[in-house]
Structures are given as structure tokens and as C-alpha cells.
Design brief:
Blueprint (H helix, E strand, L loop, with lengths): L16 E12 L2 E11 L2 E6 L8 E5 L4 E2 L3 E8 L30 H9 L2 E8 L4 E4 L1 E4 L6 E3 L4 E3 L15 H27 L11 H11 L3 E5 L3 H13 L3 E5 L17 E5 L11 H4 L4 H9 L3 H7 L4 E4 L8 H11 L4 H8 L1 H6 L8
Parallel strand pairs: 1-4, 1-5, 6-7, 11-12, 12-13, 13-14, 14-15
Antiparallel strand pairs: 1-2, 2-3, 7-9, 8-11, 9-10
Helix pairs in contact: 2-3
Protein name: Amidohydrolase-related domain-containing protein
GO molecular function, one term: hydrolase activity, acting on carbon-nitrogen (but not peptide) bonds
InterPro entries: Metal-dep_hydrolase_composite
Length: about 375
């Protein structure tokens, strides 16, 4: 027998084709196949159905009585950003890095991967952690090690500013809004200038190359989503004013306060990513402590679990995330709380599978 090199250990030769048989297969929210079969070849689903012939080389696993769903998509996982050496092509502000890709710094602890998978998550939307123009989000598998599925999905934005002691501009909310707008204005100008120079090279002086403006304007031209972090409905309104001014595709990391100003979202209809995090129960048994809570705080504690239902009734799509939870095992408890308040189960399933997959342009392979 011929071989390419000597064998110094037993071969690890797992099956290439698997068949999951006799399961209740939930192909999409509200649709299922009883006593169905799934053929998986080389890690990819090849066929799904009830009456399908199993290939001869199949390794069969009988799942009678089990329910099979698509793997959940964790829609917001922040990764720490490694600061590369500054380049002359970078934007002058270290808080503006739209060229940065979060997937380049992906790293998970084994216990975190196990926790995600125990909750049903198999994919993660990776988010850059720092800055105003944080950079590009991407999709990775929650395998060990993670594998990049799509390196660039959206540009991530944050109204990040410091106080009086901040060494770098901006140091106020007004300043960060002005900074964001000016950066977009500069990027649009840069894109138009480059087009003119390419068309009339002999009549125009070259301008310095700027990778930040290139990345930002390319994302805008390709209609890539721009995700804004929001703290309340007012930050959402500010974000939508910016996306409207510069003709951007708006996504929002929800704050939980959207129910208070649903009319803000009727025009642009942004896609939301909602953390299942709710305010803690007010300690009102002690009058001296209870009087410290405002009526607004008490009202929000009561209404926060209804936010998703109000957003859905307004015709807005959304995904769910464990982001913000100190203990991720609280995710299922909080999800059940939302379901108990009236959110349809199929819609909750869609928010973990088909809706984020479609929003991210991955509906043919995820969800």
C-alpha cells in the first residue's frame, strides 16, 4: 500500500456523512417536519425531509422523540481590540477606526464557548469594543477554535465621550455628535475627490491616502448597516437623525426604552438588537429606601418586559442577545418573562434564528 508519509499514530477518520433520523425538525419558526431526517455532509446540511433515502456511507443517529432547531445566533459579543501601531493612513483620531475588523481579534475562553452552546448558540456576531467609529462587525462559529464565516457585516458606532479630564476630543455629547457628522462629511468628500482624481489625473493634485475614510465611504456606498449603541430613546433619535442625514442603513442596539417613543422608528424602521436585560426589582419594603425611587423608575421596571411586544406591534424586526447580563444563564429566565408577557414563541425563535440571519445577509446558510 502506498502512502504520502509514515504513519506514527492511529488515523482519526470520523464519518463524512451523518444522518439525524426520526426527529421533530423545526425548519423555521412555525414550520416543522414530523419524523424527519437530516443529512449532513462534510459539516454542511445537504438534505432535510421526511422521505429521503440515506446514502450508503451514512452514519445514522436515531433522534426519535427529540426536537431539532437551527442553532441560535448570538447577536452581540464584544471582543477586546488590539491597538495596532498608528499609520499615516489612519484617521487623526484614535477613536475613528472603521477599517478595523473585530474578527481579527476573536478569542474565547473554553468555558465561555461551552456556556454559549449550552444556551443553544452556535454563531456569534462579533463587535469591536472601543471607540466612536469602532470598526466592522463579523460572524464567527462558536466552535473551538472559532471560524470566521463573514468578516464584515456592519460598521459599529458609539456616542462615546469623556469628561473634563479627557485627553482626546470629544469630551461632551455635543462634541461627539459634531465629531461623527464631520467624519462622515469628510469621508463623503474624500470619496468624491478620489473619483474626480481618477477621472482627471492630470488636472488634479493627489490627496493623502486615508484608509479610515476609504472604509467608511465604501460601507456607506455598499449600504452596509451602521449599528449605533443607545442608552435610551433619545440616543436612538440622535442616531436616526445621523443615519437619515447621510443615507445610512440603521441598526440599533436597543436600550429597553423604545416603547416610550415608538413614533421615532416608523420612518426608517431600523433593525434592533435587544439585550434581555431588565431593571432590578425596586426595594420598596423599607419606606426610607422606597422614597428614593422616582415614578419614572418604577414605571420602567414594570413596563420593560413589554418592550419587545410593543416593538413587534410597531412592525419592527429585532434579534436577541445575552449582552449586558452578568450571568448569562439568566437569559432563559428573562426570555420566559417576555413570553409570559405576551410575546409569541415563534417570534422569539425568529429573533434568535431567521431574523438576525436575514438582516446579516446569511439567510441561505444560517437560521
Amino acid at each position: 500500500m502506498s502512502q504520502t508519509e509514515p504513519v506514527d499514530a492511529l488515523h482519526n477518520n470520523p464519518p463524512r456523512v451523518w444522518a439525524l433520523t426520526h426527529a421533530m425538525i423545526h425548519t423555521e419558526p412555525g414550520t416543522f417536519i414530523k419524523d424527519g431526517n437530516i443529512i449532513i455532509r462534510d459539516g454542511q446540511i445537504e438534505k432535510v425531509g421526511r422521505y429521503i433515502q440515506l446514502p450508503n456511507d451514512t452514519y445514522e443517529i436515531d433522534l426519535e422523540g427529540a426536537h431539532v432547531y437551527a442553532g441560535f445566533i448570538e447577536s452581540w459579543v464584544e471582543v477586546k481590540k488590539e491597538e495596532p501601531p498608528k499609520s499615516p493612513r489612519d484617521h487623526w483620531s484614535s477613536k475613528v477606526r472603521p477599517e478595523y475588523r473585530a474578527v481579527d481579534d476573536v478569542s474565547f475562553k473554553e468555558k465561555d464557548l461551552k456556556q454559549f452552546r449550552s444556551l443553544g448558540f452556535t454563531m456569534a456576531h462579533i463587535i469591536p469594543e472601543k471607540g466612536i467609529f469602532r470598526g466592522q462587525s463579523g460572524i464567527v462559529t462558536l466552535s473551538d477554535p472559532p471560524k470566521t464565516v463573514l468578516s464584515s457585516i456592519a460598521q459599529v458606532m458609539n456616542f462615546k465621550y469623556g469628561g473634563w479630564g479627557e485627553k482626546e476630543y470629544p469630551s461632551s455629547l455635543l462634541g461627539v455628535i459634531a465629531h461623527i457628522r464631520q467624519t462622515f462629511i469628510d469621508a463623503v468628500w474624500y470619496g468624491k475627490a478620489q473619483q474626480i482624481i481618477q477621472k482627471y489625473p492630470d488636472e488634479n493634485e493627489l490627496i493623502p491616502s486615508n484608509i479610515s475614510f476609504e472604509s467608511l465611504e465604501m460601507a456607506r456606498q455598499l449600504n452596509k448597516p451602521f449599528i449605533f449603541l443607545t442608552r435610551d430613546e433619545h440616543f436612538a433619535h440622535r442616531a436616526l437623525n445621523i443615519t437619515k442625514e447621510f443615507n445610512l442603513t440603521p441598526w440599533l442596539l436597543g436600550s429597553g426604552y423604545e416603547y416610550r417613543r415608538l413614533e421615532f422608528f416608523k420612518d426608517q424602521k431600523p433593525f434592533f438588537i435587544f439585550p434581555l436585560e431588565f431593571p432590578t426589582k425596586a426595594k420598596v419594603t423599607d419606606p426610607s429606601i422606597g422614597l428614593q425611587y422616582s415614578t419614572e423608575q418604577l414605571k420602567h421596571w414594570d413596563l420593560a418586559p413589554d418592550n419587545l411586544q410593543h416593538v413587534n406591534n410597531a412592525g419592527l424586526d429585532f434579534a436577541l442577545t445575552t449582552h449586558g447580563l452578568k450571568n448569562k444563564t439568566q437569559f432563559r429566565t428573562n426570555l420566559q418573562r417576555v413570553l409570559d408577557r405576551g410575546l409569541p414563541k415563534d417570534l422569539a425563535l425568529a429573533a434568535l434564528t431567521t431574523q438576525p440571519a436575514e438582516a446579516m445577509g446569511m439567510e441561505k446558510s444560517l437560521g
